[in-house]
Amino acid sequence: MPRTPDEFATLKAVIASYMSRDDQRLIESAYRFSARAHAGTARQSGEPYVVHPLAVAHYLASRSLDAATIAAALLHDVIEDTATTERDLEREFGPEVASLVAGVTKLGRIRLSSTTPLLPEFLRRRAEERQRFERQVESLRKMLLAMTDDIRVILIKLADRLHNMQTLTAVPEHKRARIAQETLEIYAPLAHRLGMGEMKGQLEDLAFPYVYPAEQEQLQAMIGPKIQEREQYILRFQRILRAFLESEEMWVIDVHGRVKHLYSLWRKLNRYEGDLAKIYDLVAIRIILPDPADCYQALGLVHSRWNPLLGRIKDYIATPKPNGYRSLHTTVFGPDGEIVEVQIRTPEMHEHAEYGIAAHWHYAEGRHAREDAQEASQTKLEWLQELHRWQESLKDPKELKKVLHLDFFSDQIFVFTPQGDVIKLPAGSTPIDFAYAVHSDIGNATTGAKVDGRLIPLRTPLKNGDIVEILSTKASKGPKRDWLKFVKTQKARTHIKAQLHLAS
Ligand code: MN
């Protein structure tokens, strides 16, 4: 039996707080399996390898993710790094855990090409070359999403990347910059897309010193003292603000300061020609209130006492950002005339701003499980629509393959139902294949198809990321013989022949 790192005791305590006994037993056996499979392997730091999957599992457990996800997190490297196969995992832990691990393994193959120049060097290259690089990176991000039919795979992958970044000094020096660049260009934007503000900020700040060492050091030295001074001021303003709102009979759940992440500050500074005086949210104030109506009331109260800066009031509650971020923002002249950004939100909005899509699983455990599940699927749909818009520039899959030198992607496509479910099909599949993949009755009743809301011929090959809507009627005369000339899947072929009473 492998020795048990202390980290497992910590994980056990976390899962005991929200999981059933059965689920806890699953986690325990996943841990044992992983420790055995990785036995004899150490990380660069000299610790037993299993410490890494444990850290990944712990991060996800602290977000209250479900048992299958935590088990898969513990096992996420066994297919790639040990003799274990997906079938072994399926036998031992069932198809759900096995397919999550297989998904993470597949995503691990997506890498920045080793010929991609490092960023600082790249910025000196010609514009067209830079654009080509940006297109490559954008394609990689799209592909990560297109290849994933279960968002939990991405959550495990992000937690994996976070721990790898936290322990990057354990990686040989010549590899660090490239891993960091991949983090900055692929994983942090992905976390952002999923509304995971905390994850995005951490990934960027961990990668920053490896990708732009000189700039990071310079910025750190420049703003260190400034931040300390601002924090003192914000602390004072915080107390005045809270007392004021409470004197107006408002129930204030929390008021706190937040320091802007270093990398996002640097990006912003680049937009403002390096003028720190123009960055009003270096340290911002956050007010947390019970519900949206309270947020608007508090905004009014804040403005009644501290003058707002014109044109800086933003209502992301009425109009959320594309990634689902909600909050009221305003910038006011605070005590002593200092300019300060104030962010006002409810606890739910706060949770979503920090943890994004991961927050939904957390909520599903709570009292309002059903409403939250509905809200979660709504958000999933919006997110997929967003993803789809994002993919629109991706016209030709062959072009993508050429750019990326990837072969494994060419035999499958991923398309969506209007409800946001992902359907995996062989490349070249048509709307008829899609219809039969959803249900044979739908296939048999198909009369037409829309992609992106536009009617398309039934023989049109589908593309990755297409949202496909099947038009059907009960009065349909059934499948047409003609369909057999272009369908790609065996399932469609078999059903069509059966309906037409043809021998198969
Ligand atoms: Mn890993």
Structure keywords:
3-stranded antiparallel β-sheet; Beta Polymerase, domain 2; Hypothetical protein af1432; 10% strand; alpha+beta; binds manganese (II) ion; 504 residues; 55% helix
What does this molecule look like?
The chain is built from 22 helices and 10 strands. The chain has 504 residues and is an alpha+beta fold. Strands 1-2-5-4-3 form a 5-stranded mixed beta sheet. The protein has a 3-stranded antiparallel beta sheet with strand order 9-8-10. Strands 6-7 form a two-stranded antiparallel sheet. The longest helix is centred in the middle third of the chain and has 35 residues, at 213-247. Mean pLDDT is 82; it is low at 362-374 and 383-410. The site of manganese (II) ion (MN) has 4 residues, from loops.
Summarize, please.
Helices cover 55% and strands 10% of the residues. It has helices at 6-16, 21-37, 51-61, 67-74, 78-81, 86-93, 95-107, 119-122, 127-146, 151-166, 173-193, 197-211, 213-247, 262-271, 292-305, 347-355, 358-364, 369-391, 397-404, 431-438, 440-445, 490-499, and strands at residues 254-259, 283-288, 314-315, 328-333, 339-345, 412-416, 422-426, 446-451, 454-456, 468-472.
Structural class estimated from helices and strands? alpha+beta
CATH homolog superfamily of the largest domain: Beta Polymerase, domain 2
Give the C-level CATH assignment of the largest domain: Alpha Beta
Domain module count: 5
Quaternary organisation of the protein chains: single chain
Helix content: 55-70%
Alpha-carbon Rg, integer: 26 Å
How many runs of DSSP E, i.e. beta strands? 10
Distance between the termini: 54 Å
Q: How would a textbook summarize the main sheet?
A: 5 strands, mixed
What is the name of the CATH topology of the largest domain?
A: Beta Polymerase, domain 2
Low-confidence residue ranges? 362-374, 383-410
Globular, elongated, flat, extended or rod-shaped: what is the shape?
Answer: globular
Q: Strands of the biggest beta sheet: in what spatial order?
A: 1-2-5-4-3
Average pLDDT rating = 82
List cofactors, ions and other ligands.
manganese (II) ion
Beta-sheet strand percentage?
A: 5-15%
What is the CATH architecture annotation of the largest domain?
A: 2-Layer Sandwich
Put simply, the count of helices is: 22
